[in-house]
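pls ignore typos typing on phone
iron/sulfur cluster + seq
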Amino acid sequence: MTRRQCTGEYKIKPIKKKVRELLGYPYPTRIPKGIFVEQWAGISTDEFHRAKDADVKYMHNRHPLIDMDWSRSDCIRYLTSLGLADTPKSSCLGCPYHGNAQWRRIRDTSPEEWADVVEFDAAIRKGNARANATGNTLLGEAFLHRSRVPLSDAPIDHVTAAEWAAIQQELTETAQDLDELESGVIDGCSPWACRGEVEPVQENFGLAS
Ligand code: SF4
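k done
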């Protein structure tokens, strides 16, 4: 997995821009002390460690599921009671942490979105355009699917022996790793609580604050 810019570029940066606009203080206007929005993020009790404060004073994060002491199972039970048992995890369409099941769901239920992710996968082959422009070229090629073949050809309908072997060689041989191939990472994604590893967004991307 290479370094990702997704959380910073696609979520935090646009959210901050919108919040500043809503508050009436577009960047680089200084926001007076005591002016802030309250932002709710759906982090459940079993992912307590992912509940974080915003990195700016004009946004206060709240975590209502934790306040209510709701776990992931509580959420699923509640959604099921409303007839929404199929609610997918929160994530971007072209997330490299998707498992085969998530790729299949996109392909089989939304041809337009599938075409979009296939196109996106082809577009990232040479890596990040900005990094390439500054001489930090990608060594090799980038792919969304772990098999490292174009998404349109990736073996999302089954897990081949070769794929298992490659995964076992590369990753820690734990049941969780193997399960992730099918189900994707267990976490959903929200600003300040990305699906993958913690990402030092501000330092990396020089976001407006
Ligand atoms: S879901 Fe999270 S980790 Fe995946 S692409 Fe989106 S921001 Fe990145």
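The chain has two domains: 1-87, 88-192. The longest helix spans residues 6-23. more later
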